[in-house]
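Feature request, filed as a ticket because there's no other form

It would be nice if the structure record came with a short human-readable summary line next to the tokens. Right now we just get the raw output. Example of a typical job, pasted below so the devs can see what we mean:
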Amino acid sequence: MENRILIIGDELLGSEGEAAFRCSEMLLCAEPNRPMQFSINAPMLLSIPQLFARASSDIIGKKAGRIVLALGVGDLKRERVQGAVVADHYRTLLDELLKKTQSDLDLLTIPTEMLPEGCDQVDVLNQAIRGFVDMAPDRVGVFDWEAHVRKFQAKQEERGKFGRSLFSEASKPTSLCITLLSMFLEDCILKKLK
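Raw output as currently delivered:
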């Protein structure tokens, strides 16, 4: 169904998937007469290989016109695997979705602050995510959340000591981060829908 937007994400979207739910409300507020349906599966507690195994019911069966994927943080944290391994699993999932759906796929990059002890692995995964566009440039896009965070932090530094942090000391997104991510997602999705 071309008007259905499926958002699937792990803790990248908040511990309770807050950014996804807030984004869906913001989209409905911004475009109240646009026919939109949302199916949100966040926070996704499954690893990417587990999600792949359930893809026919959890993703393909939803018949979404647009699928937003915010994955990778959970796999890097819980599975303790290398960024390249997570990227391979991600690519396998995307390949399946490209074959078995007509959906447009949008992927979020990950700020390194979410996994400071493995920031080099986050960089490896982000590089792969950006490269996934080459799989099907007409259907796969990247919402570069990591780059957006960098720009926001640079502007905050201009304020000096009064700047607010996007991530807690435990590397969890703060309320400000959830709000910024919700606004970022809304803006990216609206641009795609135009």
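Something like this underneath would help us a lot:
The first helix runs from residue 18 to 30.
The helical segments are 18-30, 48-53, 55-58, 73-78, 83-100, 119-131, 145-158, 175-193.
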